[in-house]
Amino acid sequence: MELKxxxxxxxxxxxxxxxxRFGYATDQQHLPGLLHGAILRSRHAHARLLRVDTSRARLMxxxxxxxxxxxxxxxxxxxxxxxxxxxxxxDRVRYEGDAIAAVAADTVEQARAALEVIDVDYAPLAVxxxxxxxxxxxxxxxxxxxxxxxxxxxxxxxxxxxxCAVIVEHHYQTPRQMHxxxxxxxxxxxxxxxxxxxxxxxxxxxxxxAEQLADILGLKPSQVTVEATPTGGAFGGKDExxxxxxxxxxxxxxxxxxxxxxxxxxxxxxGIKRHPVSMIMTTGCDRQGRILAHRVDALLDTGAYAxxxxxxxxxxxxxxxxxxxxxxxxxxxGRLVYTNNGVxxxxxxxxxxxxTFAVESQLDALAEKLAMCPLALRRINLRTVDExxxxxxxxxxxxxxxxxxxxxxxxxxxxxxxxxxxxxxxTGTGMAMGAQGNGLGDGLPDRGGGRVSLSAEGRxxxxxxxxDYGQNLAEAITCLVCETLGCVAGDIDVVLGNSxxxxxxxxxxxRSSVLIHGVLADILPRWKDRVRDQAAVLTGLPCDQLYSGPxxxxxxxxxxxxxxxxxxxxxxxxxxxxxxxxxxxxxxxxQLVGRYLQLQIATVARVAVDRLTGRVRVTxxxxxxxxxxxxxxxxxxxxxxxxxxxxxxxxLSEDMPTRQGRYLADNLDQYIIPTLQDVPDQRVDVLDNxxxxxxxxxxxxxxxGIEAVAPAICSAIEAATGIRVRHLPVDAGYLLxxxxxxxxxxx
Amino acid sequence: MTRQTQPEPCAPxxxxxxxxxxxxxxxxxxxxxxxxxxxxxxxxxxxxAGCRIGRCGACTVLLNGQAVPGCLVMAWQxxxxxxxxxxxxxEASDFxxxxxxxxxxxxxxxGYCTPGVAVSLVSGLRQQxxxxxxxxxxxVAGNLCRCTGYGGLKRAIAVLTETSSET
Lengths: 747, 167
Fold this sequence. Notes:
Chain A is of the alpha+beta class. Chain A contains 17 helices and 29 strands.
């Protein structure tokens, strides 16, 4: 069923966003007594710090505080999984974004001028800039630059390869993609006059950030509040702490609120990126196209600090096992190495889409060798809904994978393209599939809570800890609440992302929608009961005749009490219901492996390749999703479309190369993300056969749309030109050279 | 490889311009950007520093009716000019038309880039009103959005194009 665009909710927040009044953290430039902070970054990708002298900076006009490692009140380390990154470096810098000192001053200009006169003596160290040789180089941390090595095995891979009729082996490379959220990292730290600090900052996990910040600032957890204010985009890039530690230390030192807002140059230089992956994939099948054996050897460049690298490696390997397909034996392994090439970490897709790019390309390569239709090859290998997942774990699909494939096969994009009169543009259609799990997975602690109450003003107030960075969470919550309570959007207030409110866990891993649905299903009926009980006392009507509806409580089709009256005359504070629940895992079997709730997508792409320049234009994208129920259609559509264009950027233009550990792009003129002129028309079809009795009818679709775009585009390029591109982003010069070579061979 | 982001200081100059109907008169370094003047004024948040090199469009404002990136306009260039931002345009009927189209078609997610997008669209509509042939998709080609993939924006533009061809 095609997901047709539907009118969005004209919420106040939407109108405020359009008019620029929405109040992002970095818009708070006029708090009383506000100071501006700036951070001194390393001049070297790898060096010993011999001396940091701030004496001249302290004398500069307008400067209120200059801090270095010695001024970090608590733990001078940050990191979600491994706390290995110095807040302010003590004796060594490991990438060009490493922070050495921070300044608070009356103006931004003064703060930056003070940075210029901090004297730092460095003793440069050998730069580890090649992931391939990183393990032979002197270690950035501990004993070795090998941060993690992981392997998943199933069956006897060598024996299975020996029985293959066809084997394909290729090298694949994916780029170091940058999140390029429009609001660069920033926010304000405000002393609370009680020794504590309130952070208003763009981030993804207020509660977890508050815990880390308390450790760094040497405060009790109760002394740190994080208000994850509306965030101007995140995509994983604001999962780790960014400016918060420096802003917090400066706020404590000066007793004044401190705003730090990185400019784009600093954001490019310091921000986390997507892991570049270099991998060799070997895949074999029998004459009928049944995949028997699959081997992956991958190398992920995690940069200078661990961040979420080990978790990304796990999700990469999970996807490298080709989870949609039944494979007799596989051996999938990956190494994660430290280098001085920036820091890589969480990014929409989380390693999965890098693996899917290669897996799907391998399937096309097998089909070509067998002279078989690539869709037919997929059909005979796809799992059924009753089979376990690729790692033997219990999984739950929301539709049979073959149904998704069949829809993709029926896409109108397969119609032969009309070639232009002068044959300048070569057109072709291709497709790829992808799977995506919801939740943190792998047995990691994964819980989330929420709260409903009636406010003193008579508003139905829903609170979750998730941060709002544009996912339409408030709209989705509103839709679900209206559906359950029969009320209207105007009755509801949604409050997100305050670390004083309920802890929902991180806003990542496509987990929010699942938990929101689960928690609401728990708390709303209980809230309804409490409200009804109070209304029964106030109206004298029997409880079972009362029900909630638009604006208030009803009996016999007539409103008998408004929510406001109920709040005024009743005890609104008594209606509050809190609940927290574990993220859904397999009811039986090994719950420590992979993710239980699984989503699928098939993306069909049509491209036109310019024979004169080698440039690729994607003219159409058609996605078929099987990801459970759609709660808020405009939000669902926007997530799929937005993620897909991020995937298009990764396929065609985005990369952050390094030389000697320094990023070669420092702003959006060199790092090219798609503009409106670069994007195709998109269509999204939703397959939702979820039975009404399903306990988990709602899945999170924040990452699904990126999964299969890059391989679909490369498949379409091959259909158009006969050339398969295995290194992303697609290099127009390479395509042109190959096209020229073809023409020479022909003539 | 670091490119300079801060201009060299020079002697302050007195600048007077009209901002959303009010007269702004202040001493600033002539190389201060219009973006910094606006954000420093305490009343403008719609123009945002997304790149400071004129690439992302998040600071788009109208300068004498023309859409420009506020980060590339210097203080000395705005003297005597009229500057309009999303805040000031909010009451205008064509801005309302743009706002409704953007909201109805869900052309935004995080919304950080959206005021710049709206100003570019208003500028395009006004040029059309003046009889110029303007493709609204081209009018927003300089506005980067990282969330939506531009799907909702394309649909909003289709709505705007339909309405403007009816009138």
